[in-house]
Amino acid sequence: MLKGANRKSQRCEKNPGHPGFIPAPEFSLCHLPVELQSDIVLRYVKNCAARTVRLRTIGSSHERPENYPFKEFQGSKVPHWSSGWVCGVYFIGGPCKCHECSAEGAKPKDRSWELTVVTACHGVYNTEEAKQTKVTFFYDDETSGNNIKHLYGNEVEYANAREDRCAFGCITHDEALAVQMESLRKERVYLWQSILNVAPFEMQHSQCVIISHPHGLSKYITVGQQVEIVSNPGTSQPYYKYLADTCPGSAGGPVLVLPGLDCPDPGWLPIVLHHSGCAGNGENIYINVSGDRSTLYV
Ligand SMILES: [Zn+2]
Ligand SMILES: [Zn+2]
Question: Per its UniProt record, what SUPFAM superfamilies does this chain match (predicted)?
Fold first, then answer.
């Protein structure tokens, strides 16, 4: 008998055996092209990995359009998986309205914070679904054990099906978690600036690094070439195509684009992409696609 993680990866139809998926704690400079092998790039990837979360949503909302993913789970208890990351931290005082403090007989804590999580709209569609979503932090590998933390989703702050983007809040009284996420968010700004100072990198093709929880498994990182930046009719923002591996459950995870010599605008380092799906080319080579580029919910 294969253990859960092994079984899911061996039976995976898209990427059997998951050969390109690197467990997040093992990710190191050797997994990057030579031109990207710098400490600042590694810190940037690790920073985004620490803010990446697993999302488990029970059922789906009757408001999902016909033929939209997971529509078939409407009214059921069947879970689906997606990924996301923490992009904002706000102190909201008390009494705390988190899942735990809202339980019957609980004594609500007097200080609380809201963490904003961004993901794909087809993973979490609206507030009804956000409230059915369990958000798991620090599930890095099978040894993560006591480090893992869980919160539940609350109100949706932004949802756009065409962009395939959703941002929702999670309320917590866990000050250590809020402080850690805020310090990572601030560090990201510094790392981003440091990378912009050296971009574009001396490689022919821009590279995409994706952090996600494929099939709801622990956190994995994949790396692959950017293939195309596609203009979007009716919007000023393009979306991206890339060869980095993804699986069901990866949707909503961050796609970090590290600009090479083919980047039309190295001054724009589009961390603000989330994985959206797969275009496929009919030759068993999967071309994966992002949601629209955005300056919202970085
Ligand atoms: Zn898979
Ligand atoms: Zn609470």
Answer: Trypsin-like serine proteases
